[in-house]
Structures are given as C-alpha cells and as structure tokens.
Amino acid sequence: MDFHLTDEQEMLRESARRFLEKECSLEQRLHAPVEGGFDAARWSRFADMGWLAASLPEDCGGLGGDIVEAALLMEEFGRTLVVDPFWGIGVLAAQTLLAADAEKARELLPLLCAGELRPALAHHELQSRGVIEHVTTQARPAGDGAWTLHGEKTLVMGGNVADRFIVSARTAGDSRDRDGITLFLIDANAPGLQRRDVRLIDNRWTAEITLDRVQVTAADLLGEVGQGWTALEYGHARGLIALCAEAVGVMERAMWITRDYLRTRKQFGVTLNTFQALQHRMAEMLIELELSRSMVYRAMAYLARPLAARQAALSVTKARVGQSGRFVCAHGIQLHGGIGVTEEYSIGHYFKRMTVFENELGSAQFHLEQLALCECAEPVAARP
Amino acid sequence: MDFKLDPADDAFRQEVRAFLQEHLPPDLARRGACGFHPIRADQRRWQRTLFDRGWGAPNWPVEYGGTGWSHLRQFIFDEECALAGAPATDNGGLRMFGPVIYAYAGDELKARLLPGILKGELYWGQGFSEPNAGSDLAALATRAVREGDEYVVNGHKIWTTGAHTCDIIGLLVKTNPEAKQRGISFLCVDPATPGITVRPIIDIGEAHSLNEVFFDNVRVPVSNLLGEENKGWTYAKAVLENERATSAEVPLNKRKLAQLRHIAGHERSDGRRVIDLPGFAPRLAQLEVDLRALEWLTLRALTEKSEGVSLPYGSLLKVRGSELVQRIGELTIEALEQYGSYLYAEPGENPDARPDWPSGPDYAPGVAADFMYRRAATIYGGANEVQRTIIARSFLGL
C-alpha cells in the first residue's frame, strides 16, 4: 500500500496546476463571458496535454493510465473551479463508452482523446435521484433492427457542446430494472432530438434533451440490447470517484482561501486568525478535508472489488465527501463574513460547486440510505 | 499510488486470526468483548501467551524482543485482536514507556525493565497529569530533589490509571523548578515505596481504574532515572509522536460498531428488530461511513514517508476517533433501551453482593459503564480543544 504519486503522476499534477492557474483562474472567468462554459481552443490544449487520454487504455488512443490520473486532474480542476466539460465528456461519457462497446471504443475514443469528438452521456432523468437503473426513455423496435426512441433526459453534463449523445433507453422491463437498458450512440443533430442548454449555479453547463421519435439503426447500438446497465455502472463508478476528487480540490482551495483571509482581515484591532473560535472551526475544516481525501483513496482501492463491495465503498465515499464539502465550503463563507456571499468574491463559488456536487450521482442522504438498506439486509451480526 | 494490500500482509492477517482462534481463551474473549476495564490477571495471562509466540511487543524493534513489524502489520494485528475480544495489552509499558526505555535508558535499566514488560510481569502506571497540570502538562509541579544517589519526590498525581494494580509508575517530575519543559525528568518508581498513597477515583461508570497518587518524601534511587535529567519532556514528546497513527483507535471503534450491529439485530420493538426501525439504519450507516474515513486516514498516516510538511495526523485522528467512540456508544445505549440504563456487575465481582444488579442479555453488561467512561475519550491524551489549537497553529499557521 502506497499513497504516494509516481513521478509521472506528480508531473501531470504539476503541469495541470500551472496551466489551470494561468489560463482558467476564477478571477479571469468572472469577468469573461460564461457562454457555454466552453472554449474550443482550450479544449484542444486539454487534448494536446494528454488530459483527455490520461485515463484511457492505449488501444483506445489513451496513455494507459487509470482512475488515478482522472482523479488527479479533477482535483486540480476543483481547485480552480474549472467550468470546461472535462468531467462530463472526458470521464463520464468516455468511461461509459469504454465499457459499453469495445469495438466502437477503439474507433471513437482516439477521436475523443484528440479533442475531435465530444460525446456526452444522456442518461439522467427527472426522477433518477441517484439510481443508475432509473430509465424510462423508451426504445421501441421499428423493424430490421431499427429502433424509435422517445423520452426526456436531464443534467446531460457537457451536453451543450456535445456532437454525440450516449443515450440510455429501455428496451425491456420497468423503470428501475437493471435488465432491459440499452445504450445508443446518437448524432447531436439527429431529427427529433431537441436540446435546451442550461447554466448551472456553478457556471458549468448542462443540457436537457427531448427525444421525440428519434430513429436509430442497429449500427447505432452500443453493446448488446438490454445489457447497458453494466457499462453505466462502470462509467458511474469512475465518474463518482473523479467527482469526489474534484470536491477534494474544491474543499482544499476553499480552506486555504479562508485561512489567508483570516490572516489579513482585521476587526477589534487584531487579525481574525487570533480568535480561537475561528481557529477551531478551521481545524475542523482541515479534518473534514483530509477524511474526504482518504475516502477518495478508499473508493479507488475498492474499484476492482465485486459489485456489492464496490457500490458500498462508492456510497460511503460520496456520502462522506458530500457532507464534508458542505461543511468546509459553508464555513468558508461564514468565516469570511459578508464578503463571502458576494458574487464578486471567490469563496461563494466554491460553495456553489459543492451544492451542485450534492445533486450529482446521488446525494449524501441517498447514499446513506443505500448503505442503510444493506445494513438491514445483512444477516444478524455475530457477536464480536 | 497503489491501494492494494500486499498479499503477504493479507497472509499475515490470516496467521494472526488463526493464532487468536487457537490461543485466545474463551473466558478472556468474553470479558474482553464487553466494555468493562480489562482485569489485570487476564492482561497478564494474555501478554504471556503473546510473549511465548514471540509477539510480546508488536511495536518494538527485534533487538529488544519486539516483532519488528511494519506499522501496517501492527495495525492489522491490533485490529484482529480487538475483533476477537482479546484483552487490551499494557499501553503504558508497550507503547509509552518501553520505547522511551530502549531509545534513551542505559543498559542497566533496559535489562531491568524491558523483559518484564514483554512477559506481562511489569505493568505500568502513568504518573503524568496533576490537579493543576492537565492539558497544560508542562505546568506539572511534582518535585524531585536529588540527595546523594536518591531523588526525594514530593507531589500529587491524578488520573493515574491502574495505580492500584501496577508494578511500576512512570513518573514525570520537575527536577529544575526554574525551567518549564526543560526542567522535567522521567523516573521509574516502585509503587510499594514508603511515602506513596494511592486513593481511588470512581468514574461515572462506577468503575475503579483511575487514582490519585500522593508522594510524601518518597525516595527513588537515581538509577531509576530514565535517560538524562531534565530531558523528560523530549522523551514524552517522542512517545507521543510514535502514538500518532493509532490515536483514532480504529480497532476499538470497529469492535464497538460490530457490537452495536449485533445488539441492533437482536433487540426488538413489538417484534421488529431495532435495526429495522425507521431512521435507525441510516444512523448506523453514518457511523460506518465515519469509521471508514478514519480507517483510511489512519492508513495514510501509517504509510506516510517522513519527508516534507506532514499533516498533524495524531491530532486529526484523535479528535474524530474519540468523537466516534462516543457516538457509537450513544447509539448502542439507545439500541439497548432499558438495558442501556442498567449498571451490571463487573467480571469477578460477586453478583450476590448487591441485590440491585440486574439481569439481561449477555451483550448488555459493560455497555453503560463503558459509555460513561468514554466521556473521557475527548479529554484524555490531550483534550480535543487542545488538539484543534495544535492543528490550527502548527499546520494552518493561524
């Protein structure tokens, strides 16, 4: 067991930090137009630096890394509150595609790594609330292996700039069955597909998608009919870890911003850092941050475990990181006082990102309840 | 980064588990699994068993009779022992004083003291805190004045765990009253020395583990000085540094959480298991979440390379570990309902001696007593408020 980065990982992190602080700082962005949260030139740079390829296998055009590389990058993105759709396209969609269809992955992921293809995962629906298997979008057979899709998708991260959508649809079963979910790859301009772009409160962009009798053929299938859940779970697991790693970056930066503020802001003739009540609050923030970081490591360690153990570990992590993130960022605002609630100042933006985090891939409460269900389902515990 | 447990460490865990299955006597395990303070006789018996296996001192180097295990293996060992219900070994001798002795004491003292610790024949009392030196330990006032080849000790120690059953007291004394930290020395004192009076302190669990110890012109041979005079503070700090990674008491917390699961799966409300009552299982799950976070922060602390700026792991872990043991206790007491409000006879006590001792399920005795005692968890070892100040000042630069 070794929690230290390799030299290559250390280099990746350092280069990401340097680039993001120079090119993507919050201060620059606050005064720049936030149109779409996307800059095509910058996306090319992400590709050139190997970020889009970092955690994909070599036969798919990747650099052969794994979830650690994605987590490293996401932590840096969190520190800077990057709005570019790296997570939605480069992690969630890419990893789902990787697991969904080996042949199409080898064909399409090299294009994604090069920044030439931007697929987004159109899976989440209005009533998903963290449940991966919640799919009500319908795919009905239209003869000759063709299908007609009908339904609505929400929170399609990066969907506003996507050129393809990986759409989950039900070919059998009920809304919360694992079996019967099928994945399709659809062109963003497909007839019958309507897109509404939405800016989230943290200035990232998402899309709501309506599928109204969208025609697809057998060639648009990803993987086997009815077998999409496994790929979705694979993508979500990696997406969840990357998201939690980002949250660790968010928390860490919010903590140091607050620390710096306490050392400079004066009231009652002294700097705020001299007040023990505030010192102790900050100590709590550090504890929460480091517990969360440990949980991201644990989730990565459990990624290769069998499904039940993996899901429990992911729930433990998402719950803890969500709770810690809210604590750290909320108190970050509190310790700043009034300036903390202004749009002009940075700390509130960290709180906004953590608020969106809680609504992605299941809230802390959702994951606690998943764990609670497991507790009740276990046979009566033996006496220790 | 590599998050996998080394297969050799996994095999080690199996080896420890098999050993416990074979060699931990059921009566010790039964008493160890409940919350009462361990009985000294049980501790001595178990320590001797470990010694015979060559595992008497998991945290010591091989040359002094230790195992030479990595921090990770020590952690695995502690965890397996806790889950099996093995009685706690002597924290004072093995973790606090032993390492100071082999690091700083002369050969004579090493030869005199270390074997007894290994064999379970020399149990240590910890004479640190004083009525006016708790969190501010360096303010201690117990004086030791040198007269020839003896120190004459006068003063008053408090919270001395096991002073009434220990074989030796590790005493922090002032040898130079002008200096604060730099005037402190470490003495090893035989509790049978004339002039020592031990007075019991009964804790709110109605148990006796704590004591006050009074020193009235107690004569201690200079040969019992540990290391050099006036360097006791350095030694004490070294000990606390070694302790940093275990301060969350993850093995203990794991055992207590397992006990809570067991109780919540057996206690019933109108036929329904307590674990199935609305709202109970999410609270249990929250404790599991927090335990896992502590466990992995501990693993980070154990595998940290000692380069660069290190996190104040000991303080981080102490704060949350002690809070967790209290929170697990709260939910356990709640799960037990009426049995959670009963105080039971301790192992070895005669149940006929007090007619008010209640009956109940076999998992009930010790829970309430331990719950009461653990209010001290956030106080002992440096109160959590002191830890937060350490974190804020040392690491955050506030």
Task: Please outline the helices and strands.
The complex is a heterodimer of chains A (384) and B (398).
Chain A: H1 7-23, H2 26-30, H3 40-48, H4 67-80, H5 86-100, H6 102-113, E1 119-122, E2 138-141, E3 147-157, E4 164-170, E5 181-187, E6 193-199, E7 205-216, E8 221-222, H7 228-264, E9 266-267, E10 270-271, H8 276-301, H9 307-336, H10 347-358, H11 364-377
Parallel strand pairs in A: 1-4
Antiparallel strand pairs in A: 2-3, 3-7, 4-5, 5-8, 6-7, 9-10
Chain B: H1 7-23, H2 26-33, H3 40-53, H4 71-84, H5 91-104, H6 107-119, E1 124-127, E2 143-147, E3 150-158, E4 168-174, E5 184-189, E6 196-202, E7 208-221, H7 232-242, H8 250-266, E8 268-269, E9 272-273, H9 280-303, H10 313-336, H11 367-373, H12 384-395
Parallel strand pairs in B: 1-4
Antiparallel strand pairs in B: 2-3, 3-7, 4-5, 6-7, 8-9
Helix pairs in contact in B: 1-4, 4-8, 5-6, 5-7, 8-9, 8-10, 9-10, 10-11, 10-12
Give the gist of this structure.
Chain A has helices at residues 7-23, 26-30, 40-48, 67-80, 86-100, 102-113, 228-264, 276-301, 307-336, 347-358, 364-377; strands at residues 119-122, 138-141, 147-157, 164-170, 181-187, 193-199, 205-216, 221-222, 266-267, 270-271. Chain A has 384 residues and is α+β, with helices and mostly antiparallel strands. Chain A has 3 domains: 7-118, Acyl-CoA dehydrogenase/oxidase, N-terminal domain (Butyryl-Coa Dehydrogenase, subunit A, domain 1, Orthogonal Bundle), CATH 1.10.540; 120-226, Butyryl-CoA Dehydrogenase, subunit A, domain 2, CATH 2.40.110.10; 230-377, Butyryl-CoA Dehydrogenase, subunit A, domain 3, CATH 1.20.140.10.
Task: Report on the architecture of this protein.
The complex is a heterodimer of chains A (384) and B (398). Chain A is of the alpha+beta class and 384 residues long. Chain A has 11 helices and 10 strands. Chain A has a 4-stranded mixed sheet with strand order 1-4-5-8. Chain A has a 4-stranded antiparallel sheet with strand order 2-3-7-6, covered by helices on one side. Chain A has a two-stranded antiparallel sheet with strand order 9-10. In chain A, a hairpin with a 2-residue loop joins strand 9 and strand 10 (270-271). Chain B has 398 residues and is an alpha+beta fold. Chain B has 3 domains: 7-89, no CATH class; 124-229, Butyryl-CoA Dehydrogenase, subunit A, domain 2 (Beta Barrel), CATH 2.40.110; 243-395, Butyryl-CoA Dehydrogenase, subunit A, domain 3, CATH 1.20.140. Chain B has helices at residues 7-23, 26-33, 40-53, 71-84, 91-104, 107-119, 232-242, 250-266, 280-303, 313-336, 367-373, 384-395; strands at 124-127, 143-147, 150-158, 168-174, 184-189, 196-202, 208-221, 268-269, 272-273. Chain B has a 4-stranded antiparallel sheet with strand order 2-3-7-6, with no helix packed on it. Chain B has a 3-stranded mixed sheet with strand order 1-4-5, covered by helices on one side. In chain B, strands 8-9 form a two-stranded antiparallel ribbon. The model of chain B has no long low-confidence stretch (mean pLDDT 92). At the A-B interface, helix 7, helix 8, helix 9 and helix 11 of A face helix 8, helix 9, helix 10 and helix 12 of B.
